[in-house]
Amino acid sequence: MPLESVKEEITEALRKYPNKRSAVMDVLRIAERAAGGHVTKEAMDEIARLLEMRPVEVNSAATFYTMYSVARPVGRHRIWVCRNISCSLLGAEHIIAHLERALGVKTGETTPDKKFTLDVAECLGSCGTSPMMQIDDDYYENLTEAKIDEILKGLK
Amino acid sequence: MEKILLKNLGNPDAHKIDHYVKGGGYKALDAALKLQPDNIIQMVKDSGLRGRGGAGFSTGLKWSFIPKDPAIPKYLCCNADEGEPGTFKDRGIMDWDPHLLIEGMLIASRAFGAARSYVYIRGEFVFGAKRIQAAIDEAYAKGFLGKNIMGTGFNHDMYVHRGFGAYICGEETALLESIEGYRAQPRKKPPFPALAGLYGKPTVINNVETLSCIPAIIERGPKWFSSMGPEKSPGPKIYGVSGHVKRPGLYELPMGTTIRDLIFNHCGGMRSDKSLKAVIPGGVSAPMLTAKDLDTPMDFDSLAAKGTMLGSGAVIVMDESTCIVKMSYIINRFFSHESCGKCTPCRDGTPWITKALRRLENGEGRPGDTGLLESLCTNIFGRTFCPLGDGAVMALRGALKNFREEFLYHERHKRCAV
Ligand SMILES: Cc1cc2nc3c(=O)[nH]c(=O)nc-3n(C[C@H](O)[C@H](O)[C@H](O)COP(=O)(O)O)c2cc1C
Ligand code: SF4
Ligand code: FES
User: Fold this and answer.
1) What pTM did the predictor assign?
2) How far apart are the C-alpha atoms of B48 and B237, rounded to whole Å?
3) ipTM given for this complex
4) Structural domain range at position A52
5) Following CA atoms B405, B281, A134, B164 in sequence, which dihedral angle do they give, to the nearest 10 degrees?
């Protein structure tokens, strides 16, 4: 039962809606966190049972929304660097190249020590403080190479 | 100008309810609860407020479409999906003044009789979602949410629904599908959400900035609101400026501020004092303008007259060093990535455009690629199920209209002209 430990959170999510299916996005997010950052097939099957959906419907939702990491294990910290227009105008390419150098991986990859997964994003709604990136739940804005080194060093 | 929407930007205490109430917060709700619901709708109509989510539809009119039968449950959804590249304005309100939004949502709900509302916030905005949730909890504790609000018999429950990385959820019917737990693909209209929206019930979908204008309209009156800016699109407007300006950021100004005033006065002019090449006035779906258009007032109608749009009010400024082919590639890569896959012209057309633009940008352009782009635009435009596909095409058409030579240069010389 992969979701046993997060039962209360799931009950809380279900309380928000008049039907069970509406909670699927919240429950997927809860399951993702419980499994250390990715959604497993077992979790999706259990979600289907809990929310009275067909497994394929849960999978369909999970794969539509791009922030879920479906069946793809990720590092302890997920990094999304914005590369859309406003960030690109202020040097997103250099920021991405610097991160790839600093972490020794290409975008889309996880470091061998499983500490970081580096991904790109297409606008994170922080365009006035570009270039920027998101690490886990937090935004890091007005980036420079030196600032990135500092941030990476600060993460356990 | 006195700020209404962004007066608390950066204020570390303003998100707390005590601060909000001390500053006169929830007084407008109190006043609204003493009015007849129809009077609230009339005031919002009279104010001239038009939706800040992009389409510019009259907010009061939208509310008036909701059936009056009290036996039918109704919903309000606040659109906080904010995904259009260049746009970061709603975050300015949610992060720093969440109670302003909640108060606006409560007044709206009272006006057309919604007992439940959802704030649909994009998944990446974790900070904002926490801020809104904390503010909702505070409002329940103080009796501004829940049963018998301020002793008037009005009941209302409010919830946060977090998205998880899909721009199309900003389209109002896709947003409803997403709350219902499906893939977020737009619905056929009609029926419009006002008649059959969330769970098939009458629903209003409004943008964060739109709803945040409501308390001030109730408190100070529709005349005060409509005296700001142009007659046909009045009120305060948040412009989010990014790109090559000295001081990017959020600016709350009267609707109809000119592009020149915004960039050269408020934002301190161009970064490194280079000259301005192009400016996108309303998020990447809005066709770009050039230096000759700088005196255009930024309101719904003036920008439409220039063949572009106010959209989300996201102003993206590009200087002379910018390659328009590259920017077009980046913009279209976004749209093809975000296409929901429901209709063929958008699902297959936007990646095709992106591929041709990538070739041009990488110096691998083929003879005729510029013409190919133009014909793809013609074949997609007006043939898509929802406005996302049209938005992709309009943006590219704007670039091709003003900078066709640059595309041709890439095609012929396999490199950039700038
Ligand atoms: C592809 C697409 C994306 C959209 N994204 C947003 C968005 O992020 N936020 C928003 O408020 N409106 C967005 N809209 C507009 C909404 O569909 C809707 O018109 C708006 O939320 C209505 O609110 P308003 O009347 O207050 O403007 C989008 C529309 C489309 C077609
Ligand atoms: S235009 Fe694009 S986003 Fe809209 S319904 Fe068609 S495929 Fe989906
Ligand atoms: S373009 Fe990077 S945050 Fe918007």
Assistant:
1) 0.98
2) 13
3) 0.98
4) 4-64
5) -100
